[in-house]
Amino acid sequence: MIKNIKEYEFSPLPAGKGGSMSVLIGDDRAPNFAMRKFVIKSGGSMPLHTNTVEHEQYVLGGSAKVVIADEEKVAKKDDILFIPAGVPHSYEVLGNEDYEFLCLVPNEEDKIEILS
To answer: DSSP alpha helices (H): ranges in 1-116?
Structure first.
């Protein structure tokens, strides 16, 4: 499979402000992991939440204040993030550029709990 990113549609995220996601590779193609692309618009955010699966992320552009557990850092282009399953995390976009990242997760049921 080879597809161009322009062939994908993005769906708004149900929580937060200005976020959308597209599943680039799902369980219909790959048995073990899914690849998703997230875009959070300038001025946008995702609230503190947990997931029941781990996340591996690669930042494509922009910057955001990211909280993972009790640690707050600025993530920017070419940074890599690991978020263990069950650990609270949030995003707040900084500056005028959209925050974009790839997120890889195991193909398992992912329950999301919004904490704030």
So the answer is: none
Task: Supply the pTM of this predicted model.
Answer: 0.94
Classify domain 7-108 by CATH architecture. Sandwich (2.60)
8 Å CB contact between 113 and 50: yes
Domain ranges of the chain: 7-108
Q: CA–CA separation, 93 vs 75, rounded Å? A: 9
**CA-CA distance, 112 to 6, in Å (whole number)?**
28
Tell me the CA distances in angstroms from 86 to 89, 103, 111, one per residue in order: 9, 16, 10
User: How long is the chain?
Assistant: 116
Q: What is the pLDDT of residue 35?
A: 98
